[in-house]
Design brief:
- The protein has 6 helices and 15 strands.
- It is mostly beta strands.
- The chain has one domain (2-303): Porin.
- It has a 14-stranded antiparallel β-barrel with strand order 1-2-3-4-5-6-7-9-10-11-12-13-14-15.
- A hairpin with a 4-residue loop joins strand 9 (207-217) and strand 10 (222-233).
- The termini are far apart.
Length: 314
């Protein structure tokens, strides 16, 4: 057991060392439910809603990543009472907050985003979005591992605390249709060069993301849904994943997902009026860190303007 704890500590520190101190990769298995977080151009794609999730990664392991997220999206077309705001509306905005803890680090990310869309056909919209990204990182020097304490960047804070703040920008472009979407987004366009506080991390590298989805009604009772996500960021391995779901009776969904070279996941969810609930059980692939345990992810969404019933999902 002692060797297991030591090995886990080394792995957690190596994850941080290999991905630059103070920077972590935020995984969301239900990425399709939080499209606007990755791409400001998709803000308001499903109308005005409150969204949130909790993710406990490597459950049971001390210092393992824990993520909390909450967002508010407002579609101005719905606020203005348009008959079909999803197609006729032009503008939307959102506020997002993500809090992530992992090892000796705590990150709080605040994103304000604005999106404008252009109707290019009777069923298509071209969406453009931009966001301001504020990141606050707190380092607890009392929780540093032996390996981290030997690094000059963070070792100087051993036994004390440090705080750093970064201001940056996000951009996004998306083509949307009732039954499919394709998008490209960028986070940290300025590379984290605008920063204040203690200097224990070298900026925040640009992250580029592609998202796509397609939905097909198989019969009156079942709809098949497929989604794809790709992310590239300096200092990290490329992140590629997809999921497939079956929506039954417009009420329940079941599905499965795969993150290449990392994990598989099982998905279940429920649609009820203006609520949407989802749960994911994620487990490592054979080539991944099996002994670090499994991951649980819970999601909830509530639509509060316009058509208050969720009739379709991604």
């Amino acid at each position: 057991m002692k060797n297991r704890v030591i090995l886990i500590g080394i792995l957690l520190s190596c994850c941080t060392l290999g991905e630059t101190f103070g920077q972590s990769r935020k995984y969301i298995s239900q990425f399709t439910q939080f499209q606007s977080y990755y791409n400001p151009g998709l803000t308001g794609y499903e109308g005005s809603a409150v969204r949130g999730f909790v993710r406990n990664q490597w459950s049971g392991v001390e210092g393992a990543p824990k993520t909390r997220f909450l967002s508010l999206e407002l579609d101005f077309g719905e606020l203005g009472g348009l008959e079909d705001p999803a197609l006729m509306g032009k503008n939307a905005m959102s506020l997002n907050m993500l809090h992530d803890t992992y090892g000796a680090f705590q990150e709080t990310e605040l994103i304000g985003a604005y999106a404008s869309r252009i109707r290019i056909s009777d069923r298509h919209n071209l969406r453009l979005g931009a966001g301001v990204n504020y990141l606050s990182v707190r380092l607890d020097g009392n929780a540093l591992t032996v390996e981290q304490s030997q690094d000059a960047s963070v070792g100087q804070y051993m036994g004390s605390f440090a705080n750093m703040q970064i201001l940056d920008f996000n951009l996004g472009l998306a083509l949307t249709h009732e039954n499919y979407y394709l998008s490209y987004g960028m986070h940290n366009v300025n590379g984290g060069r605008l920063s204040t506080g203690d200097n224990f991390m070298d900026g925040n590298p640009v992250s580029m993301m592609v998202q796509a989805g397609y939905r097909l009604a198989i019969n009156e009772s079942i709809t098949g849904i497929g989604n794809f996500f790709y992310r590239r960021q300096e200092g990290f391995a490329d992140n590629t994943e997809f999921n497939l779901k079956a929506l039954m009776l417009d009420t329940f969904w079941v599905g499965a997902g795969h993150r290449f070279n990392y994990a598989n996941s099982l998905h279940v969810g429920y649609l009820g009026g203006n609520f949407r609930l989802g749960y994911v059980y994620e487990y490592p692939t054979t080539s991944s860190r099996q002994f670090l345990g499994n991951t649980h992810e819970f999601m909830v969404m509530m639509k509060f303007l316009g058509d208050r019933e969720y009739r379709k999902i991604w």
